[in-house]
Write a structure and sequence with these properties.
alpha+beta; two-stranded antiparallel ribbon; 20% strand; binds 2-{3-[(4-chloropyridin-2-yl)amino]phenoxy}-N-methylacetamide
Length: 345
């Protein structure tokens, strides 16, 4: 066997024995690198006679091509083997049962569950869902909702204010989701039937008040909308939400700048036991505020109160969720304690 045949055999054996790309690269450098065995052979051609160079040169080129092809083939094999190994290691067996621990499964936060549940109930009644900015202008959060200048709600003790911007305008963190309703009245010709879930903010924090809380408000504006319609809409909602066939509600006269008349609504329940029961009992639980949209608010929305009427309501979601889930402390909603989530989620 010639020295070229011996080199060919040993290089092909080294290439076959390389079990990863690093080892294979080392073999390539040892054969085809500047000081590689094949490169050294090619350098000997210079000192040969033309006849020797012709025969030896051809043989060395055959060797070089054979080694190059073997290196390429081996690299492809190794790459495919690496892909197969990953596929095997990372394969997810979708036929496996779900993980035992709920905490590992991940879950929907109870507030999100309640938002989905309430918006689904109103969506079934023909309402659309509207959203708006959490950072609102003073105009949409107060003025367009008929809050007079100097109203206490406009004070710092209740509302988060931003520093005035370059135009001297002071933005606020919205204290309710009502601004979205004004924006909708400006943008949409009645009939309007919208439900607005969202975060709201107030300078308040104790066992039943969190500085960030969730509200759902609703608005109906049409050529004919009255208190009887309002009562029906809220009764239908409560029966579905509290899962009872009949519900007794009490409308107590109240006051909100943006509604006239205004009411606070209680639902009859039984609070004698550890868990509040709805649809029975002789106790009352306040669940929401509502009323006929004040004519000034219709006007701010660009509507003529002689042509259109409306009613609206608002409820604190966190409070409703505490009622439904029987939770003692509102602040637990936002502590992201896995034990709490496991229990309520
Ligand atoms: C937690 N929420 C409450 O205690 C009371 O919320 C309420 C009560 C009555 C009406 C509304 N919203 C509303 C919005 C517009 Cl644009 C016009 C008229 N009203 C919200």
């Amino acid at each position: 066997m010639s020295d070229i045949d011996q080199l060919n055999a040993s290089l092909l054996a080294e290439i076959a024995a390389a079990d990863d790309e690093t080892a294979l690269e080392a073999v390539r450098v040892s054969a085809l690198g500047k000081k590689g065995s094949v490169s050294e052979l090619l350098k000997t051609l210079g000192a040969m006679t033309p006849e020797e160079r012709q025969s030896k040169g051809a043989a060395i080129n055959v060797l070089k091509n054979a080694v190059t092809e073997a290196l390429t083939a081996r690299k492809t094999t190794l790459r495919q083997a690496a892909i197969d190994a990953r596929l095997k290691a990372e394969t997810v067996d979708v036929s496996l049962p779900v993980r035992s621990s709920p905490a590992e499964r991940g879950r929907i936060h109870p507030i999100s569950q309640i938002v989905d549940e309430i918006t689904a109930i109103f969506a079934d009644m023909g309402f659309s869902i509207a959203e708006g900015p959490d950072i609102e202008t003073d105009y949409y959060n107060f003025t367009a909702l008929n809050f007079p200048e100097g109203h206490p709600a406009r004070e710092m003790h209740d509302t988060f204010f931003f520093n005035p911007d370059e135009n001297g305008e002071r933005k606020v963190l919205r204290t309710h989701t009502s601004p979205v309703q004004v924006r909708t009245m400006e943008a949409q010709t009645p009939p309007i039937r919208i439900i607005i879930p969202g975060k709201t903010y107030r300078q308040d924090s104790d066992a039943t008040h969190s500085p960030m809380f969730h509200q759902v408000e609703g608005l109906v504006v049409d050529k004919k909308a009255n208190v009887a319609n309002l009562r029906w809409v809220l009764e239908e909602f409560c029966k579905t939400f509290f899962e009872v066939n009949s519900v007794t509600m009490r409308f107590r006269p109240s006051f909100f700048p943006f509604t006239e008349p205004s009411f606070e609504v209680d639902i009859q329940c039984d609070r004698s036991g550890p868990i509040v029961k709805f649809g029975e009992g002789t106790d009352w639980m306040e669940i929401l505020g509502c009323g006929m949209v004040h004519p000034n608010v219709l006007r701010y929305g660009g509507l003529d109160p002689d042509e259109y009427q409306g009613f609206a309501w608002g409820m604190g979601l966190d409070r409703i969720a505490m009622l439904k889930y029987g939770m003692p402390d509102l602040r637990d909603f936002f502590n992201a304690d896995v034990r709490w989530m496991t229990h309520y989620g």
